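Worked example

This section walks through a single chain of length 484. The input is the sequence exactly as stored; nothing has been trimmed or padded.
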Amino acid sequence: MARAIMLQGTGSDVGKTVLVAGLCRLAANRGLIVRPFKPQNMSNNAAVADDGGEIGRAQWLQSMAARTPSSVHMNPVLLKPQSENGSQIIVQGRVFGQAKGRDYQRLKPQLLGAVLSSFEKVAAGADLVIVEGAGSPAEINLRAGDIANMGFATQAGVPVVLVGDIDRGGVIASLVGTHTILDDGDRAMIAGYIINKFRGDVSLFDDGIRAIEGFTGWPCFGVVPWLPGAGRLPAEDSVVLERLAKGGAGALKIAVPVLPRIANFDDLDPLRTEPDVELVFVRSGERLPADASLVVLPGSKSTISDLADFRAEGWDRDLQAHARRGGRVIGICGGYQMLGRMVHDPLGIEGRTLEMPGLGLLDVETEMAPEKTVRNSTARSTEYDTPLAGYQIHLGITRGPDCIRPSAIIDGAPDGAISADGRIIGTYLHGLFSSDAYRARLLASFGLSGEQRNYRESVEQALDEVAAELERHLDPRWLAGLLG
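Given that input, the structure is written out below as C-alpha cells.
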C-alpha cells in the first residue's frame, strides 16, 4: 500500500492546495510515483480529468505537479454551488444529483464508500499519496458523517499534518484551539503541523513554536514563507478573487465582471500574467471601466441567476455602451449564453425562472438541457487560424444566425458565434487564453507586440519554485520519512 499523508487546515484558504502541489512536485522530482487526492471539494472551478469526468481544478493542477495523468478518482466528490437549487453533486466525475446544505449533510455517509474506493484506486501502484482536506477539522458541528477531513483520515488510517496560516493572524490560537476541541481519536491522527505564509525572519516565531508544542505536544514540521511562485499558479477558490488587486497600468485594459456564481475563472490566469495587460476584476457596486478595450464574460454555474445579477448591477448598460464605443467582448461558456437574445430553461434545471432575455449582443438563443457536455477538446480558432486546446463543461445548446460565423472548430465541429462586425465573440471552450498562439494574436490585434509566451512552461516553473522552497524550509527529517 502506498504511503499517505493528509494536509488539513485550521481554516479555509490556509494554502493547503499549493502545499500539496509543491509536495507532489518535490516527490516527483525525487523519482517517486506520487498522486494527489481530495475526498471532497467545493468549487465551481472544475477540470475534465484525463479519464473523463469532472474534478476540482486544484486536483488537476496537483496531478500536473505530480507529473501523472489526472483521474476522477483524485477528487471523488465535487460540490458545485448553484443558486436556489443548492449544489450540484459530482461523484467520481459524473453528476450524482443536487442538494441543499442540510440535505447534503444527511447524504454524506452514503458517499463514504465511493471516497474510500477512489482512494484505493489512486493509491494502487503509487509510492505516495498526498491528501488534501477541506475547510477545517475544527468544524466539529460537521464531524458526524464527515468525509472531507477526520472522517476520511480515521477510516483510511491516514496521518494528518495541520496547516496554519500565520498571515491572517491568530495562528497559535487556531492550532491550540483545534487541539482542544478535537476528540481523542481525531487528535491522535495528527502527526504535527506546518506554519504557512510567514513573512520576515522565521526565527522570530521560535517562541511561538515552543508555545504550541507546550499546549499540544505536536512537533512543527516547518515554517514556510510567503511563496512568490504560488501567485503564478491557477487559483482554485473564488475566495482568491476577493484578494486580487487591480493590476498595474498596462497598455491594454481588460475588464472582467465578477459574477456571484462565477465558474472556471482560472481561464483568465494567462491574461493576468501578460506584462502589457491590466486585468480589472469588477466587483459588485463598481462600474465596468469605460476605458476598457475588452470585456470578458466568464463562465457561470447558473447562467440565468447571474444574468439577473448582471442587470441588477447595471452592467448591462455599461456593456451596451462599451459595444457602442467599438469595444470588444468575449463570452466563455455561461458568458457566451448571456450574450445572446434569450436563455430558455423549460425544465427548470437552474431554478424556477424558466427563461430570461439575454444581453442581445449576439443573435443566438440558448436552451438548457439535462445532458451535460464534459470533455477535453482540441480546436482551432476561426478568427486567427491558430490551434486551441481546452475543455468543455456545460449544459445547454446555443443556436442562431450568428452561429454561421463560429469562433472555433472544436473536435471537427463548429462552436460558438461571432457578431457580424466581428467585435462580439462567444465560445464554449474553456482554456481559450491558455493557447499561446491565440493569446499572442489576440493581444497583437489590440496593437501589442504579440510576443508569444509559453504559459504552461511558466506554471511548470512556478511549481518547481514552490517545491524548492518547501525543500528548503520543511524539516528535513520529516521530509526524509515522507519521501524516503
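What to look for: DSSP finds 15 helices and 26 strands in the chain.
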